């Protein structure tokens, strides 16, 4: 049996502040967490778990007071050990 790990979310926001958190989530024990926010006016995503720590920032400045939509999507497939 395989398991589809596809997920997506979108966020509509507007701000004049160049720094801030839009979304934060963790697994309850604070070992795995995810942050979506703004740093220096640009979108930044941070992921931390037992496997890796990732921080990615880029795109146009979003701290202009206009409405913006961020869409995040991840995809993956979990295979049983017999496939590996």
UniProtKB/TrEMBL annotation:
Q: Where is the Laminin G domain?
A: 1-84
The protein depicted here goes by the name Laminin G domain-containing protein
What InterPro entries does its record include?
A: ConA-like_dom_sf, Laminin_G
Coiled-coil annotated spans: none
């Amino acid at each position: 049996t395989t398991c589809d790990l596809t997920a997506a979310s979108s966020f509509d926001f507007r701000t004049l502040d160049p720094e801030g958190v839009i979304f934060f989530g963790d697994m309850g024990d604070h070992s795995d967490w995810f942050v979506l926010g703004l740093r220096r006016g640009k979108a930044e995503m941070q992921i931390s778990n037992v496997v890796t720590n990732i921080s990615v920032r880029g795109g146009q400045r979003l701290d202009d007071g206009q409405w913006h939509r961020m869409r995040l999507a991840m995809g993956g497939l979990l295979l049983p050990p017999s496939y590996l």
